[in-house]
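Appendix B. One record, verbatim.
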Amino acid sequence: MMIDRRELLTLSAAALTTVAAGPARARTSSDNPMDNWIIVNALGGLGDPNLPGDSLVPDLSPRVLAEAHASGLTMVNITLGYVSGPEEPFEASVRDIAATDRLIREHAAEVTKILSVADIRKAKTDGKIGLLYGFQNGAMMGNDASRVDVFANLGVRVFQLTYNPANQIGDGSMASQNRGLTPFGREVVARLNEQRVMVDLSHSGEQTCLEAARISRAPISINHTGCRALVDLPRNKTDAELRLVAERGGFVGIYFMPFVNKTGHARAEDVVAHIDHAVKVCGEDHVGIGTDGDVSQIDDLDAYQAALAKEVAERRAAGISAAGERPDTYPFVIDLRGPDQFQKLIRLLQAKGYSQNRIEKIMGLNFLRYAQDVWGA
């Protein structure tokens, strides 16, 4: 599920609050060792969901930047380009990349484009928020695998093969036939390996994920998912998928989404349960977080709830909805919102008995290890 800036509802401007953001500052020493941690959101957003708009291009307003810094976030994988809808996929994707490049130039004191692991570490040192460019649908490939080269040269470092439906690359999680990769999809995976771009199997069907993990010469990722052993929904991954991705050296990010609770009304303890299950299946070196949400939270939940039914109906009509999306479920975890979400998760993992070393891996170091394996030095 990806209800973010392109798919979030237009809310009343009266719900907005503004927080002044100061210039980025280099990190300083602190009595709290967690202040020096690298925190990575393997799939999320940098925007204000209270503002009207349908673009995936980040919103780098003073409030968004101030709250991102306050959260401790070091880097977030942002979705750019085509996901669904009437736009021409290739053109929409190039346009989003160009617009985001321009925004980063305009806010160079606050944010930076991530192309390497060294860039992530430098973002932490410089007190900036790193933006990692990624796709959530391979439709912009058309039938030309060489377009992988184009987007790699433009700085895209994460490539999710499918969204929920099937595309020319393979079957998504809601494609009933579960056919796996197409011949063209196998060609795309090989090209992504050549260009050292991450192959992301979030939203994929089970056979698509298993096949991609087997044929990829580099480790693959599932950047935002849950565990189907705990909640049996298509957007969650089976133990077979989780285990194979980990055995091949990959990465699994657990999301803050309704799919982590069978009722759809997800709480923070549900996220912890899915992290714990993933650690047991994958090992502690292969699990992280990919919230599928912004740091800034929706301020007027009543207004949002009143309009959510329309949003869900539109997604269903477009054929991009996932099982478990309902008008009475939020596309986020109600008590893991806002600038404190990462620190709250850390506290909950501590309460569960996780060591500081294990938590630091989950909050960022495991993604860095995976990125190093895929991108190289």
